[in-house]
Every structure is written in structure tokens, then in C-alpha cells.
Write a structure and sequence with these properties.
Helices cover 37% and strands 18% of the residues. By secondary structure, it is an alpha+beta fold. It has five domains: 203 residues, no CATH class; 76 residues, no CATH class; 79 residues, no CATH class; 214 residues, 3-Layer(aba) Sandwich (Rossmann fold), CATH 3.40.50; 72 residues, Arc Repressor Mutant, subunit A, CATH 1.10.10. It is globular.
Length: 694
């Protein structure tokens, strides 16, 4: 991969190509002229003034996305597309924040490079993309479309990782940055690309251009593609109502002939197109079959009359409502996110393709922009529109699963499980069921049960367990991933059920026994019952979350019943995370299997396998160790033991230790004896167990 560096001065243009490795080495060390260091010293003094750094042209521009070649006359020509997308975060306080953003970007295996900008208060991040077969577009036109879509996807994937907003840029092949210096740039030569199919053209979201209109007539202000149905409907109904008021003595039984000339004239004055006025009249007076007569009357009136659209038919309130609706649809795009319960928006321009939350500041800004365009709307008018059914609903997970398309028939879920090296004989099949269950709950297939099954990846640090968990979600949905479940707040933990798609219980062995009781409740909970802040009533929120876990230690299960909810697998080598994933087909396979009735839950056979395989991961408590030290299992046929109640066993163990055993542990001791399948019988005073003292 070659990186293009171009330095342009008034008189000359200097070109250079270098490998990625060479470029990273250049970033680490300042050249002898020290122009970048001088720039950083000069910037604080230049802020707020019209001055500029006189040597700025001597710092070359770096073009990561494309390799150029020089043409005659110092021109440039497209040579090769690199598949690198640059995103940047600006206006940072200094290197501390730069390093933090750098560490966050390094969490994703698609990050090839991340380094501080020339100002010292920004960071540039280079992300790899490719087609599903690993290749890249070959023509400049295809590369332009591909790059624009890739940039949008990169922003969606990386923004949830950062506490600062990504600075949005025009997603073109000419994206560049100034050469910089960073003593410790992040560089991953083995970065895996995001897989993305070749788009046919630019997304509609990148083609918007804002423009203000001065036309007063709402009909004449209609944008191409704007649905004028409701506006014309309102105009016609208002016009008809006024005509009927003027003709107080007219009735339907009198026929519509006396009505037609006046109605046609008023429709003309209101600015309603002739054909629209005719169609609505035919619909309104459908019992009258004289279509020819109606059309003739309107045609004659529209041909002879003058002053089309000069009369204000609508009331002031109606006019304001229509103008406001047209303004909001032209300038903004709104949607109500049913998952987060938030109203979201984006401006209709070339770079604001990310939806943000509509807060008080946004509402006030919209109101001010409406006033600037001459729309005399109050804040409450805007709120009424935004908090109404005029705003469509949106569910990100349903949108994604709907767009995955048809499955090509190739298994991708089980091969993904094979990325985890282990000796578990049933791992790939159990992972397959768990993956289907996760997608099935996203689709809302089972509202009576939660996805209680949780894979636990067990292995040393550096085996990329957390990375594997993160890449299970496609980039578009990665905002729904978290590894920071807070057990100290049960309300907040339940909120995670409806807020996230995949929750990683990182360091599972650090979850205490007391917390595991609540975790068990959380895993099987089908709905999240929550109350909004300052609200009076509770609301059931749909559950989306499935769980996965990681641990560095094997002795982590404490449930004496066998922990059938966990798929414990010991990772024997670093997990493969350096290969691209065709997420579209991966999830298309899951959707296909679920919609065709394939089982996505664990049956009794699967649970029996789990209980057996999880034995080696069962945590041995001090009480269990004390029991095994002083008792062994005996058979009633051998007659070498004795029948003992749980309390007798407990008192005997108490006599063998100096520590005080909590009386509440007797119930746990009883469950433990049943788990070990110790011979027992039921008597009048309770259960008796046949044991032999050591």
C-alpha cells in the first residue's frame, strides 16, 4: 500500500510515494526543518487573528485513500484506491485526550493507524475497508461511491467509542491531512477490513443541499419529490367550506351545477391545480356521474379567470402549520427511536448523516431558523409537530435485519465459532443455537423468555476474548455493545436489557456470589420494567440484550444446580480476529434459519451436555472442601455408612473446624448433596443422606 504526499507551493509541486511502514516512521520523528513543531508553537498566537503560519505550504498533505500519479502540467490522476477511510476528532485539549482517543480506536481490529494531528489537538484515524472478496474498486467512479458509503459506516461504528464528536467531512477520495509528528502512533499492519458491497451510487443522505426559499405560496414551495397531498387536501377543504358558507340555501339534492362555477373560481384563486381540483370534486360528489360536465366547467373557469393563487384561502393557523411542516421536512429529517425512546434528527445536507438526539438546544435552534425564514411559529408549534405521528418510528435492529437480504446458503455461524480454539466437542453447535437465539430475540420472536444462555470464554490475557465478543456485532449495530454492566444499580442494569444488543460480562470471575443471584434473574427476564425519570407509572420495555462473558480463571461457577445457563469453553490459543466477516450473509443465515422454523433454544439434551461440560469450571466453596475432607459417598447395599440429616452433617462439619459456619448454609449444603447424587431418602423429619465418615 502506497501513501501519496504532495507539497504545493506557489511555484512548485513536489510528489512522493511511500509505503505505510515508511510513513509511520516519518510520523515518529520531526524532520530537520522542524516546521510542524513551529506550527504548534505558532497556533496559540494565531488564534482569533488573520495571521497564518508562513511555512504552512512546506508541510505536505497526505492522501490515505488513493494513490495518485502525476500528469502533464503537474496535474494528478487516479491510479489506485487503498481502501483507507480517514476520520478525525478535533478541538481536543492536548495530548492526554489524543492518547485516550487513540486507545479507544485501537479497540477495533479495523483500525490501521491512529496518530495526533499537526496541531497537537486533533487525531487522525485510518480505517480499512474492502469488498466481500477482499478486493477493492478499480475505477475512480466506483471508488468514490464505495468511499462515501465507507465513511458513513466508519463514523457510525467509531463514534460510540469516543466521548468527543467526530468532525464530519465531505466523504471524498481527496480527504487528506497535513503531515504530523507523533512519537507513539498506533499502527496495526494486520488490520482487518470492514466488508462492504459495492454501492451503485451515492446515498441519498449525501446528496442534500440546503437552500432557502422566498416563495410565499406553499404549493409553489414544494420541493421535487415532496408529497403535496396533504397541503392540497387542506386547501381544497378550506375552499369548499368557504363556498358552502356563501351558498347558504344550497343542498346536495339541488344538484352541483349551481355550485361548480363558484367552486372552480375559488379553487383557481386559492392556487389549486386544475386537475387536483377536478379529482377532488369528483371524489367529494361521487354520486354525480357527470364527469364531463365537471371537467368542462373547471376548464372554462381556469382558462378565462385571472389571478391564480392570489387569494389566501387558509386561516393564519393553517398557513403556519403547512409552512412549518414544509420547512421541517425540507431542512431536517426526524425519526422516533423506539429502542432508546428518543426523538432523533439530522440536517439535510451533505455531511450530517448521523442522527443526534433532539434536546432543548436543538429545538431552540430549529425555532430560530424557522423565524429567519419568515415562519411565525411558536416553540409549542414545533413541539406539537415533533411529538406527533407526523414523525415516523425507527428501530435500528429491525431496520438492519430487514436489509440483510437473502441468504446464499453458505454456513457462516459455525465457522465463526471455529475462530475460538478449544477442545469443547459441542462448542460450535452450542454457539450456533446461542447466536440464533440472540437474533430471534432481536426479532421479537420470544416475548415470554429471555435469552438466558451465556457463552463464557475462559483463557489468559491477550487471547483476544473481548475483541471477539465485540466483533460479533456488525459495525452498524456496534453502538449496542457494552462491557460495563453496573451491578450496584439494579435499575440501571435492567435498563441495559432494552438499551443494548450484546452485553459482555467482562471478568466474569469477579462477579460475587451475591451478585450472581441478581445476574440469574437478569438473564431470564423477558422484559425490562422501568419508570422514566420523574414519571409516575412503570412501563414494560422490550428486551434486546443477550449476554456473553470472558474470564481469566476456570473456577467461576457457583450454582450447585449445575449452571445450565452458561456455555463454558476454555480457549487454548489466541482467538482469530484478523479475518473479515461478511456480516450481511452472517445475519442473513440467522434470519433465514429462524423464519424457517429452526430451533433457536437449548433443549434437554443440550442442557445435559452443558451440565456435564461445566463441572470442571465449578467453583469449590470452603464448605464443599470441608465436606469432602470428612465424608465420602457410601452405598446402602454395602452397609458401611449411616443415614444423616442435613443438619447432622452440618453440626459434624462445625465440630471439625474452628471457624463459625453460618446456619444459613444448610440449604446450600442440601442442594450440594443432591447435585453430587448422594443416596438419600425421605423421612418424617426431612431428607436423609447415606454417607461414610473418613
Amino acid at each position: 500500500m502506497k501513501i501519496t504526499l504532495i507539497r504545493e507551493t506557489n511555484s512548485t509541486i513536489k510528489w512522493s510515494l511511500c509505503s505505510m511502514e515508511t510513513f509511520i516512521e516519518k510520523v515518529k520523528h520531526e524532520n530537520k526543518e522542524g516546521y510542524i513543531s513551529q506550527l504548534r508553537l505558532a497556533l496559540p498566537h494565531l488564534e482569533g487573528s488573520r495571521g497564518h503560519f508562513i511555512y504552512i505550504d512546506r508541510i505536505p498533505r497526505v492522501y490515505p485513500a488513493v494513490t495518485y500519479q502525476r500528469t502533464e502540467g503537474n496535474g494528478r490522476q487516479f491510479k489506485e484506491y487503498n481502501g483507507l477511510v480517514q476520520i478525525e476528532v478535533n478541538r481536543l485539549s492536548g495530548w492526554a485526550e489524543v492518547e485516550y482517543i487513540k486507545s479507544q480506536a485501537a479497540l477495533l481490529p479495523q483500525t490501521m493507524a491512529a496518530f495526533g494531528g499537526a496541531s497537537g489537538k486533533s487525531i487522525k484515524i485510518w480505517i480499512r475497508f474492502s469488498l466481500p472478496d477482499g478486493s477493492l474498486p478499480t475505477t475512480e467512479e466506483q471508488a468514490s461511491f464505495f468511499h462515501a458509503h465507507a465513511y458513513r459506516l466508519a463514523v457510525k461504528c467509531y463514534q460510540p467509542l469516543f466521548p468527543f464528536p467526530i468532525t464530519l467531512k465531505e466523504p471524498t477520495l481527496q480527504q487528506c491531512c497535513r503531515m504530523t509528528v507523533d512519537e507513539s502512533p498506533y499502527y496495526n499492519p494486520d488490520a482487518i477490513p470492514f466488508c462492504m458491497v459495492q454501492p451503485d451510487g451515492l446515498d441519498k443522505g449525501t446528496s442534500y443541499r440546503e437552500h432557502r426559499l422566498t416563495e410565499e405560496n406553499p404549493l409553489n414551495r414544494m420541493e421535487p419529490g415532496y408529497d403535496s397531498y396533504h397541503t392540497i387536501k387542506t386547501l381544497y377543504q378550506t375552499t369548499l367550506h368557504r363556498v358552502l358558507d356563501q351558498m347558504e340555501n344550497w343542498k346536495r339534492s339541488d344538484g352541483i351545477e349551481p355550485l361548480l362555477p363558484r367552486l372552480a373560481m375559488e379553487c383557481f384563486k386559492s392556487g389549486i391545480p386544475e386537475e387536483e381540483a377536478v379529482i377532488r370534486t369528483l371524489r367529494h360528489y361521487y354520486e354525480h356521474k357527470d364527469e364531463v360536465g365537471i371537467r368542462t366547467t373547471f376548464r372554462n373557469v381556469y382558462a378565462e379567470a385571472k389571478g391564480f393563487g392570489e387569494r389566501q384561502t387558509m386561516s393564519k393557523e393553517q398557513d403556519t402549520a403547512i409552512r412549518l411542516e414544509e420547512f421541517l421536512k425540507r431542512r431536517y429529517e426526524f425519526r422516533y427511536n423506539t429502542m432508546t425512546d428518543d426523538l432523533e434528527y439530522r440536517e439535510r445536507d451533505s455531511i450530517h448523516f448521523q442522527f443526534g438526539t433532539v434536546d432543548k438546544r436543538v429545538r431552540n435552534s430549529i425555532a430560530i431558523q424557522a423565524l429567519k425564514e419568515g415562519i411565525h411559529a411558536w416553540d409549542r408549534d414545533i413541539d406539537r409537530h415533533l411529538n406527533s405521528e407526523y414523525v415516523p418510528t425507527y428501530n435500528p435492529i429491525e431496520e438492519y435485519l430487514y436489509d440483510v437480504g437473502k441468504w446464499d446458503g453458505k454456513d457462516r455461524i459455525r465457522p465463526l465459532a471455529d475462530w475460538v480454539p478449544c477442545k469443547h466437542l459441542h462448542w460450535r453447535d452450542l454457539f450456533y443455537r446461542w447466536f440464533l437465539s440472540m437474533v430471534a430475540h432481536w426479532m421479537g420472536r420470544d416475548k415470554q423468555h429471555g435469552n438466558a444462555t451465556t457463552p463464557i470464554l475462559i483463557g489468559p490475557q491477550g487471547y483476544r476474548k473481548s475483541t471477539f465478543c465485540r466483533i460479533l456485532l456488525p459495525p452498524e449495530l456496534r453502538f449496542g455493545y457494552t462491557d460495563s454492566l453496573n451491578f450496584s444499580s439494579k435499575v440501571e442494569a435492567e435498563r441495559y436489557l432494552s438499551r443494548f444488543f450484546l452485553v459482555n460480562l467482562d471478568e466474569f470471575d469477579q462477579i460475587s456470589i451475591n451478585q450472581q443471584g441478581f445476574l440469574k434473574h437478569l438473564l431470564q427476564k423477558p422484559m425490562a420494567t422501568l419508570r422514566k425519570p420523574y414519571g409516575n407509572s412503570f412501563k414494560e420495555m422490550r428486551r434486546y440484550a443477550s449476554f456473553i462473558a470472558t474470564s481469566n480463571h476456570k473456577d467461576l461457577l457457583t450454582d450447585p444446580s449445575g449452571s445450565r445457563r452458561f456455555i463454558c469453553v476454555e480457549v487454548t490459543a489466541p482467538i482469530r480476529t484478523n479475518a473479515p466477516i461478511d456480516y450481511t450473509q452472517l445475519y442473513a443465515q440467522a434470519v433465514h434459519a429462524i423464519t424457517h422454523g429452526e430451533r433457536y433454544w437449548l433443549d434437554e439434551t443440550d442442557e445435559a451436555l452443558l451440565k456435564e461440560s461445566n463441572k470442571e469450571f465449578q467453583q469449590s466453596t470452603p464448605l464443599e472442601q470441608l465436606f469432602l475432607l470428612h465424608f465420602e459417598t457410601a452405598s446402602p447395599e454395602t452397609n458401611d455408612g449411616q443415614w444423616m440429616m442435613t443438619m447432622e452433617i452440618f453440626e459434624y462439619l462445625q465440630s471439625k473446624t474452628r471457624d463459625k459456619l453460618a446456619i444459613g448454609k444448610t440449604a446450600y449444603l442440601g442442594r450440594m448433596l443432591q447435585k453430587w447424587e448422594i443416596p438419600h431418602k425421605r423421612g418424617r423429619q426431612g431428607s436423609y443422606y447415606y454417607l461414610k465418615k473418613r
